[in-house]
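Dear colleagues,

As part of the handover before I leave the project, I'm documenting each prediction I ran so the next person doesn't have to rerun anything. This entry is a single chain, and its sequence is reproduced below.
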Amino acid sequence: MTTLANWIDLLRGLVVTLEASALSLLICIAIGIVLALARSTPNRIAHALAIGYVEFFRNVPPLVHLFFIFFALPRLGIVFPPFVCAVLGLALYHASYVAEILRAGIQAVGRDQLDAARALGFSYLGAMRYAVLPQSIWLVAPPLVNLFISLFKTSALVAAIGVADLMYWGEILNEQTFRTFEVFSAVGLVYLVCSIALSFALGRLELRVRQKGLEHAA
């Protein structure tokens, strides 16, 4: 089969897909934590800015963000390589969902935990860092796992800005061979297998995280 004969290109694309997804995940978690804290703070300006960010990025399709970073920013003299544009676009978009997930976790922990930490002398940020956030992470592990799998699948969009990911090499192979059914069946199968594998691996990690959370709670 033509697709099997060019498996090295698809493998190379899969590596780029995984790299972009992993880097985007790290960045979106960092941004999401900041946004969740801002949405939970009594500071009205920070709260309003966080809400604005979340509403904007959640309600604009990720492909638009990718095109804006890759095509529009250079008009202002801001130029990034395609891979960096891909990581930024995916991270900025998914950070809005991370923020909402973590905010829900913070609310689930309850105000009492925050007040107790403040009573012990912690600042607001200190109380969030050492008392509230660690507990909220145990609670929101399942949706965070699902978000990463969604991020991995959404990364197929980065082929539109020339990033040589799995979907990109699938399109190249299709243009060279015109064996569309065979090529995209293979690409879809790779995404399916990787998504199931990630779901299993992250599910096991989630289980361990929840067990540690129960141990801490005990």
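The chain is about 85% helix and 0% strand. The two ends are 57 Å apart (CA to CA).

All the best with the project,
I.
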